Amino acid sequence: MFRCKMSISTLILLVTLQGAxxxxxxxxxxxxxxxxxxxxxxxxxxxxxxxxxxGSSFLGQVFSQHPSVFYLMEPGWHVWSQLPKxxxxxxxxxxxxxxxxxxxxxxxxxEAFLPENHNVSDVFMWSHSRALCSPxxxxxxxxxxxxxxxxxxxxxxxxxLQGAKNACDTYxxxxxxxxxxxxxxxxxxxxxxxxLNIRIVHLVRDPRAVARSREQSANAFVTDDAIILENRxxxxxxxxxxxxxxxxxxxxxxxxRATLKAPPxxxxxxxxxxxxxxxxxxxxxxxxxxxxxxxDMTKQLGQWIYQVTHGKGTGTKKDAFTITSRDAADVxxxxxxxxxxxxxxxxxxxxxxxxxVVGIQDCEQ
Length: 365
Description:
Blueprint: H1 8-32, E1 44-49, H2 56-64, E2 69-73, H3 77-82, H4 88-103, H5 108-111, H6 149-155, H7 162-168, E3 173-178, H8 188-192, E4 198-204, H9 207-216, H10 222-228, H11 236-259, E5 270-274, H12 275-280, H13 282-293, H14 299-309, H15 328-333, H16 335-338, H17 341-350, H18 355-358
Parallel strand pairs: 1-3, 1-4, 2-3, 4-5
Helix pairs in contact: 1-4, 9-11
């Protein structure tokens, strides 16, 4: 087969031009047809929008384990990891357009960022998707049962992404997680696309808890932090606080745009979830999230949710990016005994404007 090679810079330019063209055409479409309709295929697309270390891996698994959901964890990682020097606004366009494709079970966009002879195992965190561990993608986990990620990692590696496409086509809901959008405006073309029926679940967490968790896994965020801060030079000790400031500002921007200044096509499509509320009453909160996106709670899911939120302890450093049984309420408050007070005060200062959004009060002692 003939294959065309191109540089990464050329690729990002083409993706950006494609995104601009789609935005222009969608603008024309909605001037002529202002009322968006539900796609005829009945699929629902969900964007789990959050920031690093905010509980999104857990909430992602809450979606992934549902028998009606095709889930991928952070497809945008491929763009950021390969284009660390590209302007963050251009990266958002590239990530958004990959999401648009995957929402329609088209994996050609993400394949451009994978090795030439790729396997499903080249997709970031692929084994965390129950759908890729179940038929028709893999025979390991029967539909409707909870997946075993370590077993999937060993037994479900397949050539290419045709199996992923075949699986995606069979689900009513396609859920993608992202920590790489810092505003809603770049997502408008998705919300306005007549072929999509988008719902946004915006997960926020107490920034003091986020800071404590990020500090424990700091080496994992070096590339992402540099992109967020647009490669600005600063003392190493200052990076955490500047990143936290950007994250808190993004939560405020997103919340205000969705609730105070929402365009017509966004109304009824946005739901904010606070991690602290989620772990305080998991079954109630998750049932509400499921209802928002058109899913039902099952008995098996309810049992699984209880087990993973009512374990012992807060987990170890090696568990930072995996879902294990922990005491979720203790996890949410662990920062109080582990984050030094001077760091607590500094995070409170840089995130001052976001306190109301995440629902916290300053801790003075």
